[in-house]
Amino acid sequence: MWPSRSSSSRRSARTGRWIPFPLDMLERLGALVGADVATGYCEGPLGDSFGPYELGTRPAPPWLPEALAGCGPEDPTHNIHRNMVAYPVAISDFLTPRAFARLAVYHEICRPLGAADSMRLYLPSPSGRARFFFFDRSSRGFELRSRTLLQLLRPHLVRARDHWRYPLEPPRLGLTRRQLEILSWVSRGLSNDEIAQRLWISEHTVRKHLENINHRLGVHSRVAAAVAFVTSEPSEDEVVLDATMPE
Predict the structure, then answer these.
(1) What DSSP character marks residue 209?
(2) Per-residue CA distances from 57 to 22, 94, 112, 149, 150 (Å)
(3) What is the pTM of this model?
(4) Which structural domains are found in the chain, ordered by start?
């Protein structure tokens, strides 16, 4: 069930879930469909291979954004090809093993990641944008059961995304949504490198966010910033319904 603005939504905020689909949900989805390499959710401009918002269960190697920008569109499930599709689509639906092995996307992305196949499930999105889940696995082919399960879940995922709520203004402590997300991971004991991998951003970006957080809160350590976060409480009027993507 998608949480309402109650104690459950406040707990989600405390655990860094100012995001449409939390990491633990992605992990459960991946387990259901046999995605043993990685599962993730992405939003961004149509045509982009590495959107401005991505959350995945695997650490993102530093070379991945550049590789995706270069040869990502070779993937037959890429959003420039399948954004309007309402059912799961996998690379193996369109390419034989030999044809797949001839492509740069296989040698530069899938093979290094250990992904023999990848499946996407697209959600309806505003014009010019894409929203989708990806499921990577180490062996070729996704079972009919997995596809059927995703097809049955899709209407519920669409409703969850359409009713997802996030703060329009800085929700608390005078921090931005991204700063709150980072601070929530700090409060759970993650290192800068671990946070960077979770959010698919650079460690340098995490450090800069933390510097700005400390300055805004008037503290001098990550521990003090985490204490301020944990002891704060979001107000009931900090969220509004919105269909745009997170910053």
Answers:
(1) H
(2) 10, 25, 16, 20, 18
(3) 0.65
(4) 23-162 (3.30.450.80), 167-241 (1.10.10.10)
Token representation of residue 142: 């996704």
Phi, psi of 104 (to 5 degrees): -65, -35
Say what the alpha-carbon torsion angle 25, 27, 30, 32 is, to the nearest 10 degrees.
Answer: -70
The tokens describing 13, both together, are 């905020």
| Rounded alpha-carbon distances, angstroms, from residue 218 to 85, 118, 212, 213, 228 | 49, 46, 10, 8, 10
pLDDT tens digits, the chain, 247 residues: what are they? 222 233 333 333 334 445 788 888 999 999 999 999 999 999 888 888 766 678 889 878 888 888 998 999 999 999 999 999 999 999 999 999 999 999 999 999 999 999 999 999 999 998 888 999 999 999 999 999 999 999 999 999 999 888 775 544 445 678 887 888 888 889 888 899 888 887 778 888 899 999 999 998 988 999 989 888 887 755 433 333 233 334 3
